[in-house]
Specification:
Order of helices and strands of chain A: HEEEEEEEEEEEHEEHEEHEHHHH
Helix content of chain B: under 10%
Number of domains of chain A: 2
Number of strands of chain A: 16
Distance between the termini of chain A: 96 Å
Number of helices of chain B: 3
Strand content of chain B: 35-45%
Shape of chain B: globular
Structural class of chain B: mainly beta
Number of helices of chain A: 8
Oligomer: heterodimer
Largest interface: A-B, 53 and 58 residues
Largest sheet of chain A: 6 strands, antiparallel
Chain lengths: 351, 395
C-alpha cells in the first residue's frame, strides 16, 4: 500500500514536471543552445558545414561586405511551411524558420584546399513573437561554436586573391549590434533573402539550379511568376551582369539600405539607398548632410554628380575612423573594390 | 522569460571571470537586463573601445556615481559611431555620469518614448576642434524627452541636440564651447528654459531643415535662459548646417514656425543677438516640396539685450554680407530678420518683436540684394498669443 502511494506520488510529480517542460517549451520554442552542434543543422563533421537534410544552402547575388570574410548561408524551413513571393521586400519567412550564416576566412583565397578558419555562426530564428538573433563563436580547435551575447574580437590573417598577406582585428557583434543592422521599423528582421538577391543559380550537391526555382520545387516558395518577371540585382563585381549604375546600386542596397531606407534606423538622415529609391535628393544627390558632424569631411553634399572626391558618401566609405565611416558597424577595413565601383557610378552621374 | 535570462546568465557567468574587462561586463548587463532594472556604474574612469548599447528595453535606469565621478572615456574608441546608444524603448533614465571623447556622438537615443538625461555630462576634452564628435546629448525620433542639469562641452555640432522629436523639456543645463550650445531641430512642443549657453559659436538654435522624416518643428519656447558671450570661432566641419552659423550668435531661428523667445538674458553675443532667417539664406539647394523654408509666427518679447560696441564677428558668406552689404560697423543690431518673405503669404508680420530691453533691430531685405535694409522695428511691433507649455509623460 505504502509503495503504491509512493508510486502515485512519483507519477504525479513526473506528470507535473512533464507539463512544466511542455509549458516552458511552448513559451520558448527555440530556447538558445549553448553549442551550435546541439541544433543538428549540419551532418558529419561540424566544421565542414555540410547541411543536414531539410537545411538548404543559399547565396545572395551581391552580399554585404564584412571585412573580406566569406559567408556560408543556410535556411531551414519548418516542415510543410512556405513563403509567398513578393517582388520588393525580404521574403516573409514562416514562423519556425532559421537562417544560418557562418563567417570564415580562407587561409589562401587563391587555393581553397589550404583550408579556412571559421569565425562565427549567426542564427536568426523566427519565433511567434518575432525574429531573434543568436551569435556563436567558433573555438580555435574548430570543433564547435559557443553562444556569446556580448561579442568579441579576434586577430585574423589570410592571403588575398592577389597573394598579399592581410591581417585585421575581426569584430564579432554583440546581440544589440545585430539589431543595429537587422532592423525594420524597430523589429529585428532579416536583410538578405529577397527574391532580387536569390534570383541566381547555385551549385547544389545534386545539380546547378536557379535558387527560386528550387525553392518553388521544394514547396518552400509559392506564387512565383516566370523568372523573366522576377527582379534581380546583379552580382556587383561581374561587369557582364549589369551596368555600373545597376551594380553600384546593388552594392549600396545591400551595404547601406538596411539602415538607409524609410523603415531603417538611419531614416533620421533622410538619405535612402535602397534598390527601389528613384528620388535623386533622397539618394543623396546635392543633399546637405543632417547629422554627419566630422563625417562630412568638409564636403558639402552626400553625392556630387561627376565628383566622387567631393561626395560625402565616398569619404565615409573610405574611412575606418569609427566616428566617420559607413557602415557604422561590421568593418575595420575599406572595401576598396566596392568603393571603386561607387566612385565610377558617381563619376558617371549627369552633372 | 526570466528562466531564459537566468540560464543564459549562469551559462555566461563561467566565462565572466575570464573576461574581467569592464566594457564586456557592462555590455552584457545591458543586454541581459530585465525591464525595470537599475544598472549601476561605480565611481572611476573607465576606458572603452566600442559603443555601449541598450536596445529594446523599458524602465531601465543607468545610474552613475555622479558627474565627473563616473567617467566613461572613449578616447581609444575603435568601434561604433557613438559612445552610448539607447534605442527602441520606453522610460529610460540616464543619470549621474560623464561620457568623454567619443569618436562620433556621445550619447544617441533613438525611437524612445520617455527618456530622461539628468546630471549627465558629455565632453570632448582639450581645445574645441573639428575632429570632436558632432553631438553631445542627442535624442532623435523620440517623444517625451527631459534633459535637466546636464552639461555639454566641445561638440563640433551641437552640445545638446534634440532632433525630429516631440514633447521636449531642456532645463537647468549648461552648454559651452560647442559650435551650437543647444539646438532644437524639426521638433514639436519644446520648452527650453533656465539654461546657460556661453562660449559657443551660437547659443541656442531652433532649426527646421528639409528632406527629413519629421518635416515640421513648432511650438518651441525658449525662455529665462542666460545666453551670453557666444563668440567662439566656428569649428564645425564644412558641409554641416551649423558651419554657417556666425560666431557671436545668441539665438538663431531657421525656418521654424511658432517659436516664442522671452525673458532671456542675451548678452555680449557680438554678431546676431537673435537672428530669424529663411532656409534660402543658407544658399543650399532645395528640392523638398513638403518643406516650408520661411520662419513664421516668431515672437521675441521681454528679453534683455546687451552687446559690446564691436564689429560683427561672423566669417564666411554671412560675414562677407555684413562687411560689404550691410555695413553696420560697430552698431550691429541685436535682433535681425532676413526679411525674406513668402509671396503667397503676405500681410501678417512673420516676426513680432515687443517689449525687449535695450534691443536694436534690423530687417535685411535679403531677397532684394539688401536694397531696403531697415532699422525700423515698428512694423514688427505686434504680439502673438503665448504658445502652449510642454507637458511630458514620464515615469
Amino acid at each position: 500500500m505504502r509503495s503504491k502511494s509512493y508510486l502515485l506520488l512519483l507519477a504525479v510529480t513526473a506528470w507535473l514536471f512533464a507539463f512544466r517542460e511542455a509549458f516552458i517549451l511552448s513559451d520558448m520554442p527555440l530556447a538558445p543552445k549553448e553549442m551550435l552542434s546541439e541544433y543538428g543543422f549540419f551532418a558529419g563533421n561540424l566544421s565542414e558545414q555540410l547541411p543536414a537534410a531539410e537545411v538548404l544552402p543559399y547565396k545572395l547575388n551581391t552580399p554585404l561586405f564584412s571585412d573580406y570574410a566569406q559567408k556560408l548561408r543556410f535556411v531551414k524551413f519548418p516542415p510543410g511551411q512556405s513563403a509567398a513571393y513578393n517582388p520588393d521586400e525580404v521574403l516573409d519567412l514562416p514562423v519556425g524558420t532559421v537562417l544560418i550564416k557562418t563567417f570564415y576566412y580562407p587561409k589562401d583565397a587563391r587555393d581553397a584546399t589550404k583550408g579556412r578558419r571559421l569565425m562565427e555562426t549567426r542564427l536568426l530564428l523566427h519565433e511567434a513573437k518575432g525574429w531573434k538573433a543568436l551569435e556563436y563563436i567558433w573555438n580555435d580547435e574548430q570543433t564547435d561554436a559557443y553562444l556569446e551575447v556580448a561579442g568579441d574580437s579576434k586577430e585574423v590573417t589570410w592571403v588575398d586573391e592577389q597573394g598579399k598577406r592581410r591581417a585585421l582585428t575581426y569584430s564579432i557583434p554583440n546581440l544589440n549590434q545585430c539589431k543595429g543592422c537587422h532592423n525594420q521599423n524597430e523589429q529585428l528582421w532579416p536583410i538578405g533573402p529577397s527574391v532580387r538577391q536569390l534570383n541566381g543559380t547555385l551549385a547544389y550537391a545534386d545539380t546547378t539550379e536557379n535558387q527560386l526555382l528550387r525553392w518553388q520545387r521544394l514547396g518552400l516558395l509559392t506564387s512565383l511568376p516566370t523568372l523573366d518577371k522576377v527582379p534581380k540585382v546583379p552580382q556587383w563585381d561581374d561587369a557582364k551582369a549589369g551596368t555600373v549604375d545597376e551594380r553600384a546600386r546593388a552594392w549600396l542596397d545591400i551595404n547601406c539600405a538596411h539602415c538607409h531606407s524609410p523603415a531603417g534606423p538611419a531614416r533620421s538622415s533622410g538619405m535612402f539607398l535602397h534598390w527601389q529609391e528613384t528620388d535623386a535628393t533622397r539618394l543623396g544627390v546635392m543633399k546637405a548632410p543632417v547629422a554627419a558632424g566630422r563625417g562630412s569631411g568638409g564636403r558639402q553634399y552626400g553625392i556630387v554628380p561627376g565628383q566622387p572626391d567631393q561626395s560625402i558618401l565616398v569619404h565615409r566609405l573610405e574611412s575606418t575612423d569609427p566616428g566617420v565611416m559607413m557602415p557604422e558597424l561590421g568593418r575595420r577595413t575599406v572595401h576598396a573594390e566596392g568603393v571603386q565601383l561607387v566612385r565610377e557610378w558617381i563619376a558617371g552621374l549627369p552633372r | 522569460m526570466k528562466n531564459y535570462f537566468l540560464s543564459v546568465f549562469m551559462l555566461l557567468a563561467g566565462t565572466l571571470s575570464a573576461q574581467p574587462d569592464f566594457q564586456k561586463k557592462l555590455q552584457r548587463q545591458l543586454i541581459l537586463s530585465d525591464d525595470g532594472d537599475t544598472i549601476r556604474l561605480a565611481a572611476g574612469t573607465f576606458t572603452l573601445t566600442g559603443t555601449l548599447s541598450l536596445e529594446g528595453k523599458n524602465d531601465i535606469t543607468l545610474l552613475g556615481a555622479g558627474t565627473d565621478r563616473t567617467i566613461l572615456s572613449f578616447k581609444n574608441q575603435t568601434e561604433g559611431a557613438e559612445g552610448l546608444r539607447v534605442s527602441n524603448g520606453q522610460r529610460i533614465l540616464l543619470q549621474d555620469f560623464t561620457v568623454q571623447d567619443a569618436k562620433g556622438d556621445a550619447i544617441k537615443t533613438m525611437n524612445l518614448d520617455g527618456v530622461t538625461f539628468r546630471r549627465v555630462k558629455t565632453e570632448w576634452t582639450g581645445e574645441p576642434k573639428a575632429e570632436n564628435g558632432a553631438y553631445g546629448l542627442y535624442p532623435v525620433l523620440c517623444t517625451n524627452v527631459l534633459i535637466e542639469e546636464c552639461e555639454a562641452i566641445g561638440a563640433s555640432d551641437a552640445g545638446i541636440y534634440v532632433g525630429q522629436s516631440k514633447h521636449i523639456v531642456v532645463r537647468n543645463c549648461r552648454a559651452y564651447r560647442n559650435v551650437a550650445g543647444i539646438e532644437i531641430e524639426n521638433s514639436q512642443m519644446a520648452d527650453v528654459y533656465d539654461n546657460e549657453a556661453t562660449e559657443n559659436t551660437g547659443g541656442i538654435l531652433v532649426f527646421d531643415l528639409p528632406d527629413l522624416v519629421q518635416k515640421k518643428g513648432g511650438n518651441v519656447r525658449v525662455f529665462r535662459n542666460k545666453i551670453h558671450n557666444n563668440n567662439y570661432p566656428n569649428f564645425a566641419p564644412a558641409g554641416n548646417i551649423v558651419a554657417s552659423v556666425p560666431q557671436g550668435t545668441g539665438i538663431l531661428i531657421l525656418a521654424t514656425n511658432d517659436v516664442e523667445i522671452f525673458e532671456n538674458e542675451i548678452i555680449n553675443n557680438n554678431s546676431l543677438g537673435t537672428g530669424v532667417i529663411s532656409y534660402y539664406l543658407t544658399e543650399k539647394p532645395l528640392t523638398d516640396s513638403l518643406y516650408y523654408p520661411y520662419p513664421t509666427r516668431v515672437s521675441i518679447h521681454d528679453n534683455r539685450y546687451q552687446r559690446e560696441r564691436v564689429k560683427y564677428q561672423g566669417k564666411g558668406r554671412l560675414g562677407l554680407m555684413f562687411k560689404y552689404k550691410l555695413r553696420f560697423g560697430r552698431k550691429v543690431p541685436d535682433i535681425i530678420f532676413d526679411g525674406i518673405l513668402d509671396d503667397k503669404n503676405q500681410g501678417k508680420a512673420p516676426v513680432c518683436v515687443q517689449n525687449n530691453k535695450n534691443a536694436s533691430f534690423a530687417t535685411l531685405d535679403a531677397a532684394n540684394n539688401f536694397k531696403n535694409v531697415s532699422r525700423d522695428a515698428s512694423p514688427y511691433n505686434c504680439s502673438l498669443s503665448p504658445l502652449k507649455k510642454t507637458d511630458l509623460t514620464l515615469r
